Amino acid sequence: MSHKRWVSHASAMIEGIPVNKDQVPINYTDCVFGCWYYDEGQDLSSLEEFREIEEPHTQLHNIYMGIFKILFGKKKLSFFSKLIGKSNSVTDEERKLARAKFRILEEVSKQIIGKL
How far apart are CA 16 and CA 42, in angstroms? Predict the structure, then answer.
């Protein structure tokens, strides 16, 4: 559920819904799923499907960061402004590019869910 919720945050962010601190992209080892995967989840490391999750999970975070950079990276906004949603200056082209990246993110997410 945490993974699905995290993916939905990327979609919301693209559509202009303000993000809060727990929705900002983070390192793949620091998200709720990553913390579990690299700690308690390692009890399942003998399963091939479990080991096959690592690469797409890392890729998922990289794509999410790419979306975030499209929407916020070029702007001269403070971190606080990003968190409260002061990014109304996203162009149609940037939003289109972010949506294209999100479609890739969804496919990678499906790979992860399939392995789980």
Answer: 37
Report the distance separating Cα 65 and Cα 111, nearest Å.
Answer: 19
Q: What is the pLDDT of residue 88?
A: 54
Give the separation between CA 83 and CA 24, rounded to whole angstroms.
Answer: 8
Give me the mean pLDDT over the 28-44 stretch.
91
> Helices marked H in the chain — which ranges?
2-14, 32-37, 48-51, 54-68, 79-83, 92-115
Do 72 and 85 contact (CB within 8 A), yes or no? no
Max CA pair span of the chain: 48
Contacts of 12 (CB under 8 A, 6+ apart): 19, 23
pLDDT, averaged across the chain:
84
The token duo for 46 is: 């003998």
